[in-house]
Design a protein that fits this description.
Layout: H1 14-20, E1 25-28, E2 31-42, E3 68-73, E4 77-84, E5 91-102, H2 104-111, H3 116-119, H4 123-129, E6 146-149, E7 157-160, E8 174-177
Length: 187
Amino acid sequence: MPRKLRPADFAGDAPDVARALIGAVLLVDGVGGRIVETEAYDREDPASHSYSGPTPRNRVMFGPPGRAYVYRSYGIHWCLNFVCREEGHGAGVLIRALEPLEGMDVMCERRGLHEPRLLCSGPGRVGQALAIVHDFNGHRLDQAPFEVRAADRDYEVVVGPRIGISKAADVPWRFGMAGSRFVSRPF
């Protein structure tokens, strides 16, 4: 069984961590799957929540690494990010899509559908399927309810521009598992 990731595994630059997370397994209270799509964000990136410096909303992004940064998108969906870099920097990786593996019935019930491809194909869907709530903001990724395990092998990774943002959208910091039918949008 692949090893559990520790806070030090998230201490690198956000694009490096985002790429390395492809193929890792994310579980929240035993429910989840293989990470197939991520996006990186950094303090020097105008699309990042940390761009303007620490605020009460984004302070978790400023470290330490290996924590969950949870925010509400468009006032509707809770989105899950993994904090990266050294404490004080302000970087993270958005979990955009999973291939469902564990707790399928629970995810289907939470999402109100039974099509596996649509359970976790987008950051809002990931949040709903895994029952992500703001109470998880700042929680360590190496402690319950989270479990993040390293990829079981090397996966081919495709790279493209980020989606759903208006600033720096052309920055190629979106990473996906090549050939996965579970990504939110084709690359």
